[in-house]
Amino acid sequence: MRRSVLILLAAALAALGPAASAQNWVGILKNTPAERFDxxxxxxxxxxxxxxxxxxxxxxxxxxxxxxxxxxxxxxxxRSFEAKGLxxxxxxVRNEAQGRKGDNKLNLCKKDDKWRLVGASQLKK
Length: 125
Description:
five-stranded antiparallel β-sheet, 5 strands, 38% strand
């Protein structure tokens, strides 16, 4: 079941990120709290992520928690900016599940109505 949740998470994140195979996401998510998410954890995480990206002003944190599994986390838009004519956001994502903690900064840009994960090299003109 954990593997299916991980693949589901990879597919959901692929919708936020650039075209990438689920296998690539599985490698990136290995040994992170997200690897321990159940389906409800994943739903709560993605709901908070969407709210942070689409509704929250800079420096406002969207927290999520699943009382059943005790998994939790938060997403904070650190700054909004434009790159290559696209609206972008730098976010901090912190999650905790089953004793694993993660804290990452990510850049996402909105293209074709989807938030896509971008690397620093992609932000350069």
